[in-house]
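check these tokens.
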Amino acid sequence: MTEASLIKLGFERFDETPKSSGSPQPRYYYTKDVGKVGFLSCDSDSDEAIGGKWTVDVLEGDIVFTKASELKTVIMLLEKNKI
């Protein structure tokens, strides 16, 4: 999925300085919470993001999304059914 897809899905960008990330370059990533379910993108310094193919992990699980359409469906279902 693209960075634009993450933005369209309502993900929030977080920027890190080289000092805070321990990386020689500034970098950033995206997050989104739906209820108590957290989603975290790869960071801008990852091979995936550099190649224009961002991934999103579900925190607290072994689930990784590579397709924006599938992630959109899950987010819509969670938002529709959250308490």
Observations:
- The chain has a mean pLDDT of 93.
- The longest helix spans residues 68-81.
- The helical segments are 3-8, 18-21, 47-50, 68-81.
- The longest strand covers residues 27-34.
